[in-house]
């Protein structure tokens, strides 16, 4: 069994603390050790081990058992080989531990005790524990079409049931790997230690950062192989794609959500034989097109030129953060609302007639994702770039083009460093209409004045006939379940 460690080293903030020597490390576990490992490529700095710097390295090895010691040293070469080390931190995802090994001493011939190699032992009180990660073998197949390969940095997120998922993980650790992998008609294989999402993988999300000379990528399919729960075999899930992730091809999107089509299981039996089983996935999630309408308010300075991002959350998962780049119905998006009255959508049947508004104009965006189930929350943010970055959002309406479910989010807030509480990112919760299948609380935590009155009145007017309520409060009273 192979495993990966993330090694972080802090050079002290002292005169001449940095080193030009070649640095090595050895990790010692209860079962084995790594042997002397030269630390070549830092993830943080090209000029390594300078004064008051932090370097991060990846060390791949076989299973060592529980870590108990590290040995850090150098070969005393270069113009200034002397080195002052503050501490070493080793993150072991397979163990669910991040351990600190204090040092605070010189590794130098002319300082301290003159030694250039030290054994360090971890400080138990500084150990951070978390749920252990599990290994996934991820193979991405680049298609055999013209310009299918990419120089961009590819990432992946894996989802289990009930919206349990891994963190977004970039597959390549440096530019050299980006150029080496994802060539036309190739298979790029990675072994990653990520969060355990449970026995069933519902979907994955793949995408890239759109960097490099040729960022566009045509993905054929993705295989994910992992150990069975009893660890006496493996299962491999295949996720078909056969689409572009490119701003110049297909629908111009660089993110795709994929659902598994088949599962190939290999399991060792008690008699030592290998049993191989192939089956199709039963009832995979549907891939759904969501129409997202965003209404910018009709107040002075409401429009924004900044880059806007949205994340949609449902009881089956989330979309991940999506950049709202191209409006389906307007060339100049997120402008201040008008009194013109705009129909709902940019083509197709679009949302129902009640999804209209006489106080704002709506920008419509199409987001493709695996079925999210009942949508209950969204996150909006912008990057505060351009001259007019401040943004006042009135409301957001989301329409499921497959089953015609509709979801309303009352906002009524600024996303601005200069207004209200100075926040550029906000969460909004769904305002329940007539759907009663969800019995939990869908109220926004006072994300707008309307929400405040709605929450307050609902508890104080339980015995009042809402048909008799008039005046300004009538808009904030709704019939409960």
From TrEMBL:
One Gene Ontology term from the biological process aspect of the record: sensory perception of sound
Residue stretches in coiled coil: none
Residues annotated as domain PLAT: 3-121, 134-259, 288-429
GO cellular component: stereocilium
Lineage: superkingdom: Eukaryota
CDD domains cross-referenced by the UniProt entry: PLAT_repeat
Protein name: PLAT domain-containing protein
Organism from which the protein derives: Cervus elaphus hippelaphus
Lineage: Eukaryota, Metazoa, Chordata, Craniata, Vertebrata
């Amino acid at each position: 069994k192979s495993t990966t460690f993330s090694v972080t080293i802090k050079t002290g903030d002292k005169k001449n603390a940095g080193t030009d020597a070649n640095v090595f490390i050895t990790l010692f576990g209860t079962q084995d050790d790594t042997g002397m490992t030269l630390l070549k490529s830092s993830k943080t700095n090209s000029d390594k081990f300078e004064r008051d710097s932090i370097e991060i390295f990846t060390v791949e090895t076989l299973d060592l058992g529980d870590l108990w010691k590290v040995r850090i040293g150098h070969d005393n070469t270069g113009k200034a080989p002397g080195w002052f080390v503050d501490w070493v931190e080793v993150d072991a995802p397979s163990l669910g531990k991040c351990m600190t090994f204090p040092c605070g001493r010189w590794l130098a011939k002319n300082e301290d005790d003159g030694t250039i190699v030290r054994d360090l032992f971890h400080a138990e009180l500084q150990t951070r524990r978390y749920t252990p990660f599990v290994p996934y073998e991820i193979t991405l197949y680049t298609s055999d079409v013209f310009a299918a390969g990419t120089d961009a940095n590819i990432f992946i997120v894996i989802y289990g049931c009930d919206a349990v998922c891994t963190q977004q993980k970039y597959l390549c650790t440096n530019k050299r790997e980006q150029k080496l992998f994802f060539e036309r008609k190739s298979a790029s294989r990675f072994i990653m230690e990520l969060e355990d999402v449970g026995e069933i993988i519902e979907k994955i999300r793949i995408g890239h950062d759109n960097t490099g000379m040729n960022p566009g990528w045509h993905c054929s399919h993705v295989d994910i192989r992992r150990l069975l729960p009893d660890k006496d075999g493996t299962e491999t899930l295949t996720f078909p794609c056969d689409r572009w992730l490119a701003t110049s091809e297909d629908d111009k999107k660089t993110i795709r959500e994929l659902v598994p089509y088949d599962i190939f299981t290999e399991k060792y039996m008690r008699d030592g034989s290998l049993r191989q089983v192939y089956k199709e996935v039963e009832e995979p999630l549907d891939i759904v097109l969501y129409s997202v309408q965003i209404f910018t308010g009709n107040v002075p300075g409401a429009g924004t030129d900044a880059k806007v991002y949205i994340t949609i959350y449902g009881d089956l998962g989330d979309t991940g953060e999506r950049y709202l780049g191209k409006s389906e119905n307007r060339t100049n998006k997120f402008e201040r609302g008008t009194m013109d009255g705009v129909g709902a959508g940019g083509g197709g049947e679009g949302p129902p007639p009640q999804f209209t508004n006489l106080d704002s104009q709506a920008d419509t965006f199409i987001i493709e994702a695996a079925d999210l189930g009942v949508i209950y929350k969204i996150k909006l943010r912008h990057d505060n770039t351009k001259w007019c970055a401040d943004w006042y959002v009135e409301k957001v309406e989301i329409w499921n083009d497959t089953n015609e479910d509709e979801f309303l989010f009352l906002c009524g807030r600024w996303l601005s460093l200069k207004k209200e509480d100075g926040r550029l990112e906000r969460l909004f919760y769904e305002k329940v209409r007539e759907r009663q299948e969800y019995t939990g609380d869908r109220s926004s935590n006072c994300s707008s004045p309307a929400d405040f009155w709605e929450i307050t009145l609902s508890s104080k007017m339980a015995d009042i006939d809402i048909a008799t309520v008039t005046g300004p409060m009538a808009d904030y009273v709704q019939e409960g379940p």
